[in-house]
Amino acid sequence: MYREDVMAETGTRFDDEYNAAVDLIARNLAAGRADKPAFIDINGTHTYGDVERLSNKVANAMTGLGVRREQRVLMCMLDTVDFVAVFLGCIKAGIVPVPVNTRLTAKDYSFMLDDSRAAALVVSEPLYPLFEKDIDAHPDLEKVIVSGADSLGHKSLSDLIAGASDSFEPERTRLDDMCFWLYTSGTTGMPKGAVHLHSHLIETANLYAKPILGIKEDDVVYSAAKLFFAYGLGNGLTFPMAAGATAILHAGPPDAAAVVSILRDKNPTIFYGVPTLYGMLLASGQLPKQGEHALRLCTSAGEALPAELMRRWKEATGTDILDGIGTTEMLHIFLSNSADDIKPGTTGKPIPGYDLRLVDEDGNPVPAGEMGTLEVSGPTSAIMYWNQREKSRDTFRGPWTRTGDKYTVDADGYYTYAGRTDDMMKVGGIYVSPFEVETAVLTHECVLEVAVVGQPDQDDLVKPKAYVVLNQGHSASDDLAQALIDHAKAELAAFKRPRWIEFVEELPKTATGKIQRYKLRL
C-alpha cells in the first residue's frame, strides 16, 4: 500500500514540512493536555507540558554544544524521562538520536560509536563504565553527556537542562528526512543501523496502536520491552503520546517481581510483554488475578506466543494477549491478532496498511499452504542499513522488506510462525519448525520453557532435540524425559517428535528475550 493510501485510510495529513517530535507533543498541547501525566518514572510524574519544556531544553543544549543537523547522538540510557527528553529534543533540532541496547558489551558500543560517527554520547551514569576505557578513541565523538547524579568528569545532562531555555524553534524537517536509527540485535554478525524517517513514528501508531489496540487518552500503558527496542519505543513513547495516554517507565530490569509490582501498584490498562516474560510471570505464583488488576489488554512480540501460554494467561488474569510480529526494520508490529479476532497459536492477520507475502529461497512466491520466508511491504520500513550496502540490498528489495522468519498461511488468512530461517531443521528431507515441536512439549504441566534444535544421531542424520526448563516443584529424571517424549507423540508426526530431552537451568536468550537456538547447536 502506498503512503497516500495509508494517509487517506488513517486520516493523517502530513505537510511537506514535518517534525515527528513536534507532532507528538503539539497534538497533546492543542488538545488541552499540558497538565496531564505523560510519563511516570522513578523520579515522579511528568506532564505533557513538562515534556515540551524538557525536549526544548535538550534541543537548545545540543545545538549550543555544536551538534549539527543530521549528526548522530548515541543514546545508551535507562528508561526514564531523560530518555524521552533527549530522543525528542534531538529530533526537534534535526539531530539524529540513536538509542542502543543497554545490555551490550564495551566492544559493541565501540563499534556503534564508530559506525554511526556519533558526534555526542548521552549515557546513564551506571552504564558509563562500559564506555570509559576507550572513550577518547573515537575521532568523531566530540561531547560526552552523563544522565545521573554524578557526571563522572563529563557534561551533566541535568546541568545542561537547567541552564538551557525552554523555548526552541524546531528545525525545519520534512517527513522523508532521516529522523532516528535503531541498531538490529546483531544475531548474524555485528549490529546494523536501521535508518528511519520522520513519518515512521506516527505511522506505527495510526496503523497498529489505534485500530488494533484501541489506545485512548485514558489508558495507562507499561512496556516490559525497553525504549531502545523498536517494540518498546512504540509501546512506551510513540503510542501513548499519539493518543494522549500515560506511560509507566521502569529503569530496572523487567524481572517477574518488578513487573508484578507495577501491575499491582501502578494499574496499567495495557501491558506489553514477550513470551518468555509471560511464562516467568505465570511461574512466579504472584500474578494478580482477575479483579486484582486494571489490565484490559496485553500484547506479545519478539517470538511467537505458544497457544498454551496464551491459554494459561487468560485463565489466570482474564485478559487476552494479542500476539504479533514486528521487526527493527519495520519499526513495529505489522502482523497481529486483534481483540475481536484471536486465533491461538497463530500470529494473526496482516494489519491494514501492510502487505505480506511468503517467498522461496529465490524470492518467488510459494504455493498456497507451503512454508516460505515472510516479506512485508509498508510505510514504516527503514530505508537502509547505514554503511551496509550489500546487507541493505539483501533485506530491502524494492517495496519488500525481507524478515528472515519462516511462516505458513492458511485458507482463512492466518499466519503461523515456523521459526527463523537459520533455525529450521531438515529431518528426513522435510523441513520441521522448532516452534511446532516446542509448542507440543510446552503443553506438559512440568515445562516452563523449551527450545528445540536439530542434532545428528549416530548415523549423522538430523533429529529434533529439546532443551527443557522445568517449572518449580519438578525435578529432572530419565522417567520425566521419556514422559515428555511420550506427551509430544500425541500432537506430532513421528519424524517431528523430539528424540532427546536435556534438562537445563535456563535457555540462552537475547536482551529482548528471544531464545538463541544457535547457541544450543554448538
How does this structure look, described?
The mean pLDDT is 93. The chain is 31% helix and 24% strand. It contains 16 helices and 26 strands. The protein has 522 residues and is of the alpha/beta class. α2 packs across α8. It has 3 domains: 133 residues, 3-Layer(aba) Sandwich (Rossmann fold); 221 residues, Rossmann fold (3-Layer(aba) Sandwich); 94 residues, 2-Layer Sandwich (GMP Synthetase, Chain A, domain 3), CATH 3.30.300. The strands form 6 sheets. Strands 2-1-11-10-12-13-14-15-16 form a 9-stranded mixed sheet. A 5-stranded parallel sheet has the order 4-3-5-6-7, with helices on both faces. The longest helix is centred in the first third of the chain and has 17 residues.
Descriptive keywords:
ligase, 522 residues, GMP Synthetase, Chain A, domain 3, 5-stranded parallel beta sheet, 9-stranded mixed beta sheet, alpha/beta, globular, 26 strands, single chain, Rossmann fold, acid-thiol ligase activity
